[in-house]
Amino acid sequence: MIQRDSILISRVTLMFMLCVFIVFFIVSGDVVAKEKSVGSVVRVVGDVSLIGDDGETKKLHIQQGIYSGDRLVTGKGSWLTVNFYDLTRVVLRPESEFHITHFPVTMDAGDINLKVVRGGARVTSGTIASKSHERFTLSTPSGNLHAGRAEWVVRVCDGQRCDTEYDAIKQCKKYQKPMMKNAEIISVYQGQIRINNCAGTSVVEKGSSAILNTQTHSCNVIDQVPCFVLFDGKMGKDKIRTYLKKLTLNEIVEVQVDENQSKEEVRPESRHSRPSSRTRRSTPSIDRPRRSRR
After folding, report:
1. What distance in Å separates the CA atoms of residue 80 and residue 121, rounded to the nearest whole number?
2. Which of 67, 117, 69, 113 shows the shortest CA–CA distance to 92?
3. 3-class state of residue 122 by DSSP
């Protein structure tokens, strides 16, 4: 009887220890997963900060680790570049807020969910996204977009913000300006993007842009990348030579040029006008009157 009780006690003790070990293994695994970084900072310009899961705000510096759940914020005139372990790359423009809602610590640990709250970002999706469009989701204030292996720019234009930026770029004055008031702009450099922001699902191909009005929810896909995106620092200056030639010239500018040319063509000659020196020099010597040697 005593022997039977001791065997029962030993079994209960063994089961208890096994349960404790399993719980410890699961908890420690979660802790390790939370503490493992998913990316690192490779470029910082200006005032850039990070807000962690605990709500603590700290300044970012090069080679600092980035974790799932972090929020990244750039100040005025500030830029940030983050590289993730699966070759995903995010470049944040000035005055932007970007949430890393979920980024799996391993390739098979889940899907990528990111969010642009304000401002803009240039995103290059990596290996995880290449497996399926549904594995990479980028949220904006008006909806979601999904990407395979691609490279694109997202701009959130609150009010007249993007209009003001466009007008400040001299190189863009001769090109047609799209409607950008209260809009979201998705411009694709490589690959393709599927967006759910429009009525139904739309696909934005390489060299095209989707412009969504956040108030009317109307969506327009155009076969070009807006000029102000190309000239917006790291957002597109390396793509200017490729995509600037696809832009449509501003008709008003063309009309003004034609009018100026026509005025010059019909300008009456002054009676005091003389041929240019280059013209006089080009007159054949045989037609020139000879001077007397006396």
Report:
1. 10
2. 117
3. strand
Q: In whole angstroms, what is the distance from residue 42 CA to residue 83 CA?
A: 7
- Give a yes or no: residue 20 inside a domain: no
Question: Does the residue 156 lie in any domain?
Answer: yes
Written as one letter, the residue type at 211 is: I
Single-letter residue type at 146: H
In a domain, 228, yes or no: yes
The count of domains in the chain is 1
As a whole number, mean pLDDT of residues 174-191 equals 92
Q: Tell me the C-alpha distance between 48 and 58, whole Å.
A: 9
Helix (H, G, I), strand (E, B) or coil at 30: helix
Judge whether 291 lies within some domain: no
pLDDT confidence of 91, banded at 50, 70, 90? very high
Q: Tens digit of pLDDT for each residue in 15-68?
A: 656 655 554 444 444 444 457 899 999 999 999 999 988 888 999 999 999 999
Range of the domain at 123: 32-251
- Residue 120 — pLDDT band, cuts 50, 70, 90? very high
Mean pLDDT for the chain overall: 81
What is the identity of the amino acid at 270? S
What's the pTM value of the predicted model, to 2 decimals? 0.74
Looking up residue 46, the CATH number of its domain turns out to be 2.60.120.1440
The sign of the dihedral angle between the CA atoms of 136, 139, 143, 145 is negative
Closest residue by Cα to residue 197 from 140, 278, 132: 140
pLDDT at residue 196, as a whole number: 81
Q: Give CA–CA dist 97/70, Å, rounded.
A: 11
